[in-house]
Specification:
By secondary structure, the protein is an alpha+beta fold. The N and C termini lie far apart (81 Å). One of its GO terms (biological process) is cilium movement.
Amino acid sequence: GKLSSLVCAQEKKIFAVQGPYPVIRSLLRARGWVERKLPRGGRRLKQQLGGQKKQQLETEPSDDGDEQGEAVLNPRGGAQPSLGATEPLHYPWPHDEEVEEEEEVDEDSDKIHDLMSYLVRDQVPNFLWTIRLSSIDHELLQRIEVVNRYHWVHALSTKEGLCLSLQNLPWFEQADPNTFFPRCYRLGTTEEREAFIEDFHLTAARSLLKLALEKAGDRLVGMEQPPKSNKGPGDHFSHPVPPTEGPGSSLSSSSRLAEEALEVCKQHLGVLEHQDIDRKTPSPCRTCIDWNCFLQDYYRVAHEGAGLALSGAQRERCRDLLRRLAEQLPQFSIEGDRNVWILKPSAKSRGRGIVCATRLEEVLRLSRGCTTPSARVREWVVQKYVERPLTIFGTKFDIRQWFLVTDGNPLTVWFYQDCYLRFCSQPFSLRHLEPSRHLCNVSVQKQYKTSPHQDPRVPPSRVWSSRQFQAYLARLGRADAWHQVMVPGMKAAILNSLRCAHDHMSFRKGSFELFGADFLVGEDCQPWLLEINSCPTMSPSTAVTRRLCANVQRDTLRLVLDRKDDPSCPIGAFELIYKEAAVPLRPAVGINLMVEGCSLKKP
């Protein structure tokens, strides 16, 4: 054991793992690496500066502000494990991660690894895999060659950061974020808050016209239900409002309400077509009607089933305006008629704090107070909900797609060709906005039992592999949609997000990071980016995720370790999708402001 440890130290094969990653630990040991084990959870080893080697134990707060112990590396060595211990070292995981199953440990094998870890206790690891960098002593971190995290990825991996980054996309690429990212607003800023309110108003006007056509038995071209193939009884692509209005439920002036919606949409179309370019007054969409009264009437129609009748002339104008608006608005196809929005805390993960809302006052009430500086960590964003998603057996799903960044200059991005789908536990419905129907996060859905109304063909594990999804699409006669629409769309969304967030991220040579992007699929199979997660969970919660998560960890190590010595080694399901030309680094020193001369002498 001592000889092996010395050899590993000479060959730079010492690693450390912080967090629930038994697969990483096993794969590195199989390569002949030796682990420098971390101290037990609940305490932090911190080096005392000033030349002293004294070590102090302290508790570190988590990113969420809760007291939470984490194992932390220190450059002068860690807690020494008992040589005769057969109990494995357990590392608590932060709240942002899924809880994994405990690692099975062979007692005899663990004795050997404990001994070898003891022998390298004073060595600096050459490779570190950690949940968060804040857990690692900064001095030591500078000396570790390869780390699985980058500093400052918030511009990409927080909801607020991604929202702000994609607003700047046109400065970097000839691309429109509205074609792949549902429009999103940071409610903590006055300007974006007002922009959201205007967007809500305009979307309500379009929704009212759609409802009016549906109640009249009409349907806009391009919004009709796709032809049936071998869909199950739960599969659906549109969500019409049932005729629930009864006696006395009609509006007092439905003609006036329809006329107001038509006028708003006409004015908005003029803005989109630049017909207002010479107008010096404020946007007519904000002032042309009494919005408070309009919204209350709209709620009655959309949510209470109030009647709404169109004259023949109004019906023709309605069809024409909606058709022209569909040509101008990239997200027209994901809008329904209920104007649903989704409110999210910026820095939370696993679906925590997310709420769906259909009323403007409800969104503003939920987000009230987020403009204060002290609430910046809990910054809220509001995003347009995809009301017309592709469903499987009548159930909503999303896609977890991995990608790997191995360099920031030149930006180098790898796309993992295997991914998985996450299903909700109840059938999709816009009339019921419970999390069990609308939030696909595993952490959310595991709190619910499968609904008795759920189609029995939905997998009990609520997870599918991408291969199972492709087989399903083939049975629907849409086999080409995966490779021709969904995968290219996901790649483009990932690259566009990285390009516009790149300047606000901190990269380090030799390090890398695996990200998990979440996508929703529209009825037309177009993927829509929802968010990007740093340090995605590797929890083997199902048979599908057990296999895929193990594979992506294996292939990541192949790519970042094995490929350095053998460029032709297999890299599994990773595909290089982008490597830009290297950009010369700007000098650290700015303009030389030194003035040369001689001092004046007294006469």
